[in-house]
Amino acid sequence: MLERRVAPSPALAILSPVIAVALTVLAGFALFAALGKDPVKAMEIYFLSPFADAYNRSELLVKAIPLALIGSGLAVCFRAGVFNIGAPGQYTLGAIFAGGVALHVPEGAAMIWLLPLCLAAGFVGGMLWGWIPALLRNLAGANVILVSLMLTYVAALLLDWLVRGPWADPLGRGFPKTAAFPDGALMPTLLAGTRLHWGLVLAVAAALILSWMLFRTRRGFGIRAMGLAPKAAAFGGFSEARTITYVLLVSGGLAGLAGAVEATATIQQLQPDIAAGYGFAAIIVAFLGRLNPIGALIAALALAVTYIGGENAQILLKLPKNAAFVFQGMLLFFLLACDTLIHYRVRVRRRAGAA
Amino acid sequence: MEAFIISMIVAATPLLLAATGELVAERSGVLNLGVEGMMLLGAVAAFAVALSTGSGMLGFLAGAAAGMGAAALFALVALGFTANQAASGLALAIFGTGVSGLIGQGYVGNAIDPLGPVLAVESLPDSAVLRVILGQDAMVYFALLLAIAVWFYLGRTRSGLKLRAIGDDAASAHAVGLKVLGSRTAAVLFGGACAGLAGAYLSLAYTPLWGENMTAGRGWIALALVVFAGWGPIRVIFGAYLFAAASLSQFYGGTLGLSIPSQFLAMTPYLATILALVIISAAGARRNAPAMLGLPFRPDR
């Protein structure tokens, strides 16, 4: 039986992610052993190989960038009790908007402004996609979870249509992709010889700004108040509708920025599979990072390990690409269960006849 | 036309199965977003068992059991530990995708005999309409009967009424002595078994093959379908056939002389669901929408 603690356990609040990661590794070990695969080797590849050399470590950061951008925005959103699970769609719209700018810039235009313009367009695209569920929620009371989820599929189909139809590369021989972005739209790398790019600076800056907004401003106080006690926040003069719109615009915009960053930095064109599951994985990032934008930075690195480990396992162990999702799913399960123990303690209660 | 209707029936059946199960879970107040994961686990378990035993029946049972097992995991976290339901469901969707890929790796490329129609083709009357109505496999009829049974259960039985009460106001239901967590767990397990059957139908009858991610988003469509149908079991039947027709129009659109890009046709179920959601919510006609959908409940006393 679970029994409510008098006060939430501060130790568990910090330890919970660590316990969840440890349990995930243990359960992964057991699962691989049960499936007749060498568990020691599998765990080594999934969790140690991403740190093995400089190239793997730089790739770790490359994968962490979009996860951190989306995750820190979602942390703010979830703090308000608004469950935006449409980040994959907002990410896709961001990539579409950035691609739209990059591919339609007139020849001879000033290239210096092209990349900032692409990134800004991506932010706007994500905001637009995040704004729709907010609008429908505030006008009609439609469920944010369901609307944002449905829009994810609409966004994916929109991208699919663009890269096969109007924006298809004329020289692409029928492959579903756009032409490569012009040089001016490409994100410069940070470290020569790696793919590590300036998106890292954006991700850190976004986390710092969001953290300041959430913990140091009146608006941030309203967001946290609404998540903890919606009625009290309303009596305190914080408009529920406006807070919902704000957090969805922020998290949508950052997911869109992540899409624009990925499109201009690592993919450098548009294609149907640009999302790589970042949008859903970022939800784990937000929870693992204790719904704190700075925490999301660290959590993004942890999730990036599952991506790089998964890619390495695909090559070295011939495991399917989806196997990495086993760890992501388990991590979220364990984390959610551990988080309950912050507020509740386990008490073995005998079924007493007298009670 | 006959070919279109037959493929529509076959495409609608897994949607109907999964949505009927999810509907019961949601009417008890639990939003389980993990349908996609439960379907994939059901599909791979059914395929593995059917391939090794040669029995489609055992395959379907294994699929239902796998879906139920996955739902039990969700119930443990979301109900037992009162965690955020949407996050727990998402964890299940991600986890199920991963585990099914891992288990199914050895089964890629194997083929089994597809599930045949209940009545032999020779015994059917020589009429196109009757051939379509009578010539389907057993699961097509089972899915329809299941949805009707759920309609009867929720609307006409005492136990169904209690389940709806729990979904609308768990605290009051608990106060009058109803077993909130027990009923919700049962509803979630039923939903899991249905999703597992839906997955089994895909790998045993629809394709019949195993492939990574073979559900291709059908679990998410089933979730949309429940909302689209306004949480009504009979409307889920019509919705499933409508959604199936809309998704098939991608392939048949060309032959029907439609010039709309297939992606826009494929969007219609999702846009229609958003529209339905807005209308249902705005009209205040939340007759069937469970008032406590997605809200955790922990009895304090």
Short description:
Chain A is built from 13 helices and two strands. Chain A is an all-alpha fold.
Structure description:
The complex is a heterodimer of chains A (355) and B (301). In chain A, helix 4 crosses helix 10 and helix 5 packs antiparallel against helix 10 (240-267). Chain A has 355 residues and is an all-alpha fold. A two-stranded antiparallel sheet of chain A has the order 1-2. The mean pLDDT of chain A is 90. Chain A has one domain (63-318): ABC transporter involved in vitamin B12 uptake, BtuC (Orthogonal Bundle). Chain A is built from 13 helices and two strands; from the N terminus they run E-H-H-H-H-H-H-H-H-H-H-H-H-H-E. By secondary structure, chain B is mainly alpha-helical. Chain B has a single domain, classed as ABC transporter involved in vitamin B12 uptake, BtuC. In chain B, 70% of the residues lie in helices and 0% in strands. Chain B has helices at 2-27, 35-53, 56-80, 85-104, 128-134, 138-156, 158-168, 170-175, 180-206, 218-228, 233-252, 262-282. In chain B, helix 1 (2-27) runs antiparallel to helix 9, helix 2 runs parallel beside helix 4 and helix 3 (56-80) packs antiparallel against helix 9 (180-206). The longest helix of chain B has 27 residues, at 180-206. Classes of the chains: A mainly alpha (355), B mainly alpha (301). Chains A and B meet through helix 5, helix 6, helix 11 and helix 13 of A and helix 3, helix 4, helix 10 and helix 12 of B.
